[in-house]
Amino acid sequence: MAPVPQQIPLELRVTPLGSNEALRLITALNTELAALYPEPGANHFRLDPDEVAPGRGIFVIGYVSGEAVACGAVRKLDAHTAEVKRMYVHPAARGRGYARRVLAYLEGAALRLGVNRLLLETGVRQLAAIALYRRCGFIDVERYTEYVDSPLSLCMGKDLAT
Fold first, then answer.
1. Segments making up each domain of the chain, as ranges
2. If residue 155 lies in a helix (H) or strand (E), which one and from where to where?
3. Among 147, 122, 150, which residue's Cα sits nearest to residue 136?
4. Fold of 11-118
5. 3-class SS of residue 39
6. What are phi and psi of 88, to 5 degrees?
7. pLDDT score, position 46
8. pLDDT score of 1
9. What pLDDT is recorded for position 42?
């Protein structure tokens, strides 16, 4: 992928998790994370299509000039809480505010799902992601569910304005 010019806007579309674009972005994300965290059991790649089905969550892709360059998902954990998953921006498109746009869209989707709290897990080596989440109002929280015993996981949360 060629570098994405700064001024081109991001178009966000809710997309099936099994689409070709989704699979391409998720494969790139998994490859990047596997290289960053080669330790056994360090990666938590799971997201099932039923978790982003209507009423339970969404998967969104960001397009620039028709090319898929970013993605993210939100899945409902319970009646009050949802989790951000699979946040990714292709390296050639980074530094343009696209991750912030995807995250803001996911926050709105979470509110539409009826939740008032968002959680997420990121890795301790993903300093740019951690900085983004903190700038967007997320704070460190206790590791939860599958991340409890994962020392390379950093969990964060944010109460959503309703």
1. 11-118
2. strand 153-159
3. 122
4. Aminopeptidase (3.40.630)
5. coil
6. -160, 140
7. 81
8. 59
9. 75
